[in-house]
Design a protein that fits this description.
This protein is mainly alpha-helical and about 140 residues long. The chain contains 7 helices and 4 strands; from the N terminus they run ααβαβαβαβαα. The strands form 2 sheets. Strands 1-4 form a two-stranded antiparallel sheet. A two-stranded antiparallel ribbon has the order 2-3. Helix 1 runs antiparallel to helix 2.
């Protein structure tokens, strides 16, 4: 039921389209519905723990072959080839969940210019915030 509510919130915000099991997030918009879906404590902001929880869930969804890593194909549109090379510490061409969450943390910090440890709608709408959202929502 909770998943349906979250999907409905994304759909209402125009963040995803439901149909043919396809989910599209145009420009990873940071609408209030997206923030609500990422904000279980309902304080109106997204903290690092909430971002990592969403990223962990998305990682599992993106890992189609269930090998515990995401390759370039599975990361398509979320991390460029150049970025993958820069954030892949073991240089195996994939990101395991810990490596993926490290990228989430880097992008979170980049999107938090006031260093208050939370991201509001304005920060999530920034280029750095939209980059982070690509790692959090499908």
């Amino acid at each position: 039921m909770k998943a349906k509510c979250i999907l409905a919130a994304f759909a209402a915000a125009g963040a995803i389209t439901l149909g043919a099991a396809a989910f599209v997030v145009p420009a990873f918009a940071a609408s209030s519905s997206v923030i609500k879906a990422l904000d279980p404590d309902k304080d109106g902001t997204v903290d690092l723990a909430e971002a990592k929880a969403a990223a962990s869930t998305l990682f599992d969804q993106l890992d189609h072959d269930k090998d515990g890593t995401l390759d370039r194909r599975e990361l398509r549109g979320r991390v460029t080839t150049k970025e993958l090379k820069a954030v892949d510490p073991d240089k195996d061409g994939t990101l395991d969940k810990n490596e993926y969450l490290a990228v989430v943390e880097q992008r979170f910090k980049a999107a938090d210019p006031d260093n208050d440890g939370t991201l509001d709608a304005k920060e999530l709408k920034s280029p750095a915030g939209r980059s982070l959202l690509r790692l959090l929502v499908k």
